[in-house]
Amino acid sequence: MQIENDHIINVENLQKTFYSIRGFWKREKHPVQAVQGISFSVRKGELFGIVGPNGAGKTTTVKMLSTLLLPTSGKATIFGLDVVKDTNLVRPRIGFTFGGNKGLYSRLSGLDNLKYFAELYKLEPDIITRRIKELLEVVGLTGRENDRVETYSSGMQQRLHLARALLHDPELIFLDEPTVGIDPVGAREIRQLVKDLIKRGKTILLTSHYMYEVEELCDRIAVVNHGKVIALDTPAALKTQSSGDCVIAIQTPNGEQSLQGKLESIQKYLTQTHTSGDTLSLYTRSPSKVLNELAPLLEQNIITNIEVRNATLEDVYVDIIKNHAA
Q1: Are 130 and 276 in a shared domain?
Q2: Are residues 81 and 216 in the same domain?
Q3: DSSP H or E segment with residue 60
Q4: What pTM does this model have?
Q5: Are residues 195 and 96 in the same domain?
Q6: Helix axis angle, 154-165 to 184-199, nearest 10°
Q7: Has residue 92 got a pLDDT over 60?
Q8: Which long-range contacts (CB under 8 A, 24 or more apart) does 98-101 make?
Q9: Average pLDDT, the chain
């Protein structure tokens, strides 16, 4: 079947509704819309990211596309195949991982886990031996393959997840928060593995909460909130949509209250403000004028620290989510 415009994934108005049971005497079903009409496409060889708050519908979307959940309505095709009608044709061509130790047998060795899943994929014995040896080398687990998975670190378990997902050499890989709970060194190794997979010609759909990660890895990003896509573009293009060209991050002992009077005088230079803990971020296109106004407060120790930087993808993400919530 021909894939339209070289798109591996095409999603049109995909929706998923769950039902919760409420009430003690009178049990009633209440609908919860996890995904409310998501639409996007992923090109062949692309690393496509989906980001959004907890409960935004990211994992539900991935589970529907990887044939683990049936959509309530809408349509999704992979390789031109319908994920509902052609499930048995889609599954041999995709791989997926979900963060944590789910999907692995902790009391078995890494090698035994891979052998078990390879047999489920109905791979020939000679292919299994060769493929497992190659993948252990690729994910950096050679030498630890005979150890029980319960002795593996979080990073090692995630690498084993990747090896499992690659056993049948899939064309498309779904990675749901692949570095969650992993230390910085392990996370960097996972990101390098993902880059290597793209170089090998794979197509990857990745979800993550880490903006620096998606900025480093992804060709395009869809921002999802309340089950809908609210922004979709390249990381560079999304950053140009920021309200301010510069961010001045200020730390004060009493937060925004310490600056209340001064904020009124510099409000005309600001496009927006954002408070997180004791840090106040000022978005502006006139950083020199704002800094001149704030300098006396720094000398008086009302401001304990000040940092000037360009807007990051995280700043833009917060802006997009905040504006959508409003």
Answers
A1: no
A2: yes
A3: helix 58-65
A4: 0.81
A5: yes
A6: 20
A7: yes
A8: 98/59, 98/161, 98/176, 98/177, 99/158, 99/176, 99/177, 99/178, 99/179, 99/180, 99/181, 100/157, 100/180, 100/181, 101/149, 101/157
A9: 88
